[in-house]
Write a structure and sequence with these properties.
The complex is a heterodimer of chains A (363) and B (499).
Chain A (H helix, E strand, L loop, with lengths): L1 E9 L5 H4 L2 H19 L4 H9 L6 H26 L7 H18 L8 H27 L3 H21 L34 H18 L1 H11 L1 H7 L3 H28 L10 H11 L4 H25 L5 H21 E9 H5 L1
Antiparallel strand pairs in A: 1-2
Chain B lengths: L3 E11 L2 E12 L3 E5 L6 H8 L7 E6 L2 E3 L4 H6 L2 E4 L11 H6 L6 H14 L15 H13 L5 E5 L7 H16 L3 E6 L2 H7 L2 E6 L2 E7 L5 H9 L18 E10 L9 E9 L3 E5 L6 H9 L8 E4 L2 E2 L5 H6 L2 E4 L3 H5 L6 H5 L10 E2 L2 E2 L1 H14 L16 H13 L5 E5 L7 H16 L3 E5 L3 H7 L2 E6 L2 E2 L3 E2 L5 H8 L6
Parallel strand pairs in B: 3-8, 3-9, 6-7, 7-8, 13-20, 13-21, 16-19, 19-20
Antiparallel strand pairs in B: 1-2, 1-4, 4-5, 9-10, 11-12, 11-14, 14-15, 17-18, 21-22, 21-23
Helix pairs in contact in B: 8-17, 13-14
Classes of the chains: A mainly alpha (363), B alpha/beta (499).
Chain lengths: 363, 499
């Protein structure tokens, strides 16, 4: 009897041009996979996919919503790319976003009955510092106590969410709010300026674009960027070259935390306008997918954030028109990551099938 | 039944090196055979061929006059050739029994009975139900041996089996091996430790540079004669002229260098003290795995050891990292050029920027000065005759020799006062080796110093002014190289002592 035995080998000649092309393959496979799921659920797959991917952005309002959702994804993913490029696995951006929003929101609440041009910059700065401080916790524990940053940064997400819960229910809840778990509305001076009348897209998008430019400059034009690149490719070489490994870990976590914190502030001073329990539909986690789909490249991340933002919108449209839960958005995000990892794997490894006689396996 | 294993005219050629050159050997059961040779002599290649991991380009293997086709490890197993590698192939989190049952043919009950018989017969004490990670290195090795014994092997090959064992575990191993031998298992023992050969083996085959140099009865051999054969007496053609003046200043001085590691595959260093004079090359010989890796990393500043004093040009530098040590005009060329000294995915000029010394201005105010780095890289490429002019080329496309020239060029362009290099010519072809040897001699001629850590004795005798041997983390006394002979080195490298 012949038994196939699967053997996996590394390719020595992996075509690097394909490396930037596989994200597109992953997206196409995700759409096909989505079609199959809709078919199994009993929908016409073409129509369902149209509701999912085309209807949401077929008008100006939809397009503004797309940019609104892409903004925090892009900002956070840019920050994460610093960590991931240097082999630091910060997966707690959601927590850094939340803590940034708490600190930024706290400052906004201080000024709830005041006006002034200086308030919004203060709020944004406070948010950035909040995210930075929160990201420093796993970074310091990693550098000085050898803890695993994946676990620490992930667990801190729940710490920040519970802290937010406590604040909006307890000390910061709106005294005139009939005990709803939310704070006062922020004053207009701490709100992000809207770009167009009637649309929700706000000035935060410029912060995201600035982050893209700045990160491109830092990663490709500075000594810090060079150190990040070398450390990501070979930690042994970084050590041999004498890079200050600990300082670099702290710096990339701070950059990453600041970006997530600003994204959090963008949400509460943009579309939300106050603090409450649900300030982010897991943008911090989804941004991990965005960072990898964008190949950790600043401009790739812009593109990836738009694609992933569309899965959020599509899910909402599908809930309205097809009566399926909006959590299908997460199914699509999961599929993108799955297909991306799978196509990368096949790009770098080849699968060989050896046919062996059954008894050969045993000897 | 007697076993007769015959290797006939085996050759294996890798690009740029002949690993096995027409090797023929004959082994008969009832004896323990040693296969002796330095690193890179071709022992491992021969063993890999016998265990089916690689196929020879030429030649045949016969077991009891039957021609074996060994195209995979499965074939070796089928033909009852068992193999215990230096690094164990065990699942750490599984129990001993689970590890042994993975590729066993019996059901669990009869397997357990069979294992217990083996344990009893050879007096092994191992608890079958503890996870492998709780075992000592010696016990893990026993598990590997049991795995081979379960298949009632005709041939048992042991690859450097004592490198991770304590003295006592080594003794126990030898007793077991002698027992196996009495039972008719043919044992091939691969090593570079001369004493072990003399105390354990009946016959010894010495390999050097891919060829079998001699086959003899161990009773007719001594440590010196074996060392002689292993290292080779061929003296170098270009020998540098030894520095005559002995009253030169000491430029580099190491005191109380101790290093302790919890990793069983790392070597502890015990109280190393040495110094290097201006314009001198200090050679450190030794068989790899005796502490050279750790020593290099401590000298370069990748590992900082407390209580060590390193004085360089009258300054204490023991606490400085590699970059800071470079500022004081030290330079380093590690053994691993592919994943440490350079990054294959980076372009040539980016790899040059790794040696970012103060006056280079590669990075001004934190910004990359690409023009400067590229100019500098072009100079290195032409000064050190690297076979390309394209600084944008990714380093992975350079041959080993060209990559090493690039690395040496990068390190030397700062005109360092001291270069520390570790196996600078391993795996290179003759032309590149010559070029690098000439370069290293030139450094000394310019009154700059070098520390050459190498496993190649020929290279050491050719380049060093004084030589010391590192063995199990201890340094021998430092000898002027005109007093050193290959035999002496061989004895010290194998753990023996002279005078």
């Amino acid at each position: 009897m012949e038994v196939p035995l699967i053997k996996i080998e590394k390719r020595n000649d992996a075509p690097m041009a394909l490396y930037f092309f596989t994200p597109f393959i992953a997206i196409i496979l995700t759409i096909l996979g989505g079609g199959i799921i809709f078919y199994i659920l009993g929908f016409n797959p073409i129509e369902a996919l149209k509701f999912y991917f085309i209807t949401p952005i077929s008008n100006l309002y939809g397009f503004s919503e797309l940019l609104l959702k892409a903004t925090p994804l892009c900002l956070i993913a840019i920050g994460l790319s610093f960590c991931f490029k240097s082999n630091n696995w910060n997966i707690g951006a959601e927590g850094q976003l939340t803590f940034g929003a708490i600190i930024g929101g706290g400052v906004a609440l201080l000024f709830y009955n005041q006006d002034g041009f200086y308030i919004l910059p203060l709020v944004i700065l406070a948010g950035a510092i909040g995210g930075m401080i929160f990201a420093l916790i796993p970074a310091i524990l990693k550098t000085y106590f050898n803890t695993n940053e994946i676990l620490v940064s992930l667990m801190l997400v729940y710490v920040s969410k519970l802290l937010l819960d406590y604040l909006v229910v307890g000390p910061w809840s709106n005294p005139e709010g009939f005990n709803f778990p939310e704070t006062r509305q922020f004053s207009d001076s701490s709100r992000m300026p809207l770009l167009f009348e009637g649309l929700r897209i706000h000035a935060g998008i410029f912060l995201a674009l600035a982050a893209v430019m700045l990160s491109w400059f830092i990663l490709y034009k500075t000594y810090l960027g060079f150190q990040i690149k070398v450390s990501g490719l070979s930690l042994k070489t970084a050590k041999y070259a004498g890079f200050k490994g600990k300082t670099m870990i702290l710096v990339v976590f701070m950059i990453s935390g600041a970006c997530a914190g600003i994204a959090g502030v963008g949400e509460i001073t943009g579309p939300i306008g106050q603090l409450h329990r649900m300030i982010s539909p897991d943008y911090g986690f989804t941004a991990i997918i965005v960072a990898f789909l964008g190949r950790l490249n600043p401009f790739g991340i812009i593109f990836a954030s738009l694609v992933v933002a569309l899965t959020y919108l599509g899910a909402e449209t599908a809930q309205i028109f097809l009566q399926i839960p909006k959590y299908t958005g997460q199914v699509f995000q999961g599929m993108i990551l799955f297909f991306l990892l799978a196509s990368d794997y096949l790009l770098f490894f080849k699968v060989k099938i050896l046919n062996l006689k059954k008894n050969e396996l045993r000897h | 039944m007697a076993t007769d294993l015959r290797i006939s005219n085996i050759s294996k050629i890798y690009p740029g090196c002949i690993a096995n050159d027409n090797v023929s050997l004959q082994f008969k059961s009832g004896k323990i055979y040693a296969l002796l040779g330095e690193n890179g002599a071709g022992k491992s290649t021969l063993v890999k061929i016998l265990s089916g991991v690689i196929s020879p380009d030429n030649g045949e293997v016969y077991l009891n006059e039957k021609n074996l086709k060994l195209s995979s490890p499965l074939d070796a197993k089928k033909n009852k050739i068992g193999m215990v590698f230096q690094h164990f192939n065990l699942f750490e989190t599984l129990s001993v029994f689970e590890n042994l049952s993975i590729d066993a043919t019996e059901d669990n009950k009869s397997l357990r009975i069979k294992i217990n018989e083996i344990l009893k017969k050879y007096n092994f004490s191992i608890d079958l139900d503890v996870p492998v990670l709780n075992l000592s290195a010696g016990q893990k090795q026993k598990v590997e041996i049991i795995r081979c014994l379960l298949r009632s092997p005709k041939v048992l090959i042991m690859d450097e089996p004592t490198s991770v064992l304590t003295e006592q575990e080594t003794e126990e191993l030898f007793i077991s091996l002698k027992k196996f031998c009495d039972e008719g298992i043919l044992i091939i023992y691969i090593t570079h430790k001369l004493k072990e050969v003399l105390s354990l083996c009946d016959e010894v085959a010495v390999m050097r540079k891919g060829k079998v140099i001699s086959v003899s009865q161990t009773q007719n051999e001594k440590v010196e004669t074996l060392a002689n054969k292993m290292v080779g007496q061929k003296l170098a053609k270009i020998k540098k002229k030894i520095n005559i003046s002995k009253i030169k200043d000491e430029i580099f001085k190491v005191k109380h260098l101790n290093f302790h590691s919890d990793d069983p595959f790392e070597t502890n260093l015990i109280n190393l003290n040495f110094s290097v004079k201006k314009g001198e090359c200090l050679g450190i010989a030794g068989i790899s795995g005796n502490g050279q890796n750790e020593l290099f990393q401590i000298l370069s500043g990748e590992i900082i050891t407390p209580d060590t004093s390193i004085i360089f040009r009258n300054k204490e530098i023991a606490k400085l990292n590699p970059k800071q040590r470079r500022e004081y005009l030290m330079a380093f060329s590690p053994e691993d050029r592919i994943s440490q000294a350079a990054v294959p995915e980076l372009k040539i000029y980016e790899n040059v920027a790794l040696n970012n010394f103060k006056s280079s201005n590669f990075f001004e105010k934190g910004l990359v000065n690409e023009r400067k780095i590229k100019e500098h890289s072009k100079k290195i490429l032409s000064d050190f005759s690297v076979n390309t002019e394209n600084v944008e080329l990714k380093s992975q496309f350079l041959s080993g020799g060209n990559l090493q020239k690039l690395i040496l060029g990068r390190e030397l362009i700062t005109a360092p006062e001291l270069l520390i290099c570790y196996n600078p010519t391993w795996g290179l072809d003759v032309g590149a080796i010559n070029y690098i040897h000439e370069t290293l001699i030139k450094i000394n001629d310019q009154e700059k110093s070098t520390i050459l850590i190498s496993t190649d004795t020929e290279e050491l005798l050719k380049l060093s002014d004084r030589i010391a041997v590192i063995y199990k983390g201890k340094l021998s006394k430092i000898m002027p190289s005109e007093e050193v002979t290959p035999e002496k080195l061989g004895v010290l490298m194998g753990g023996g002592s002279i005078d």
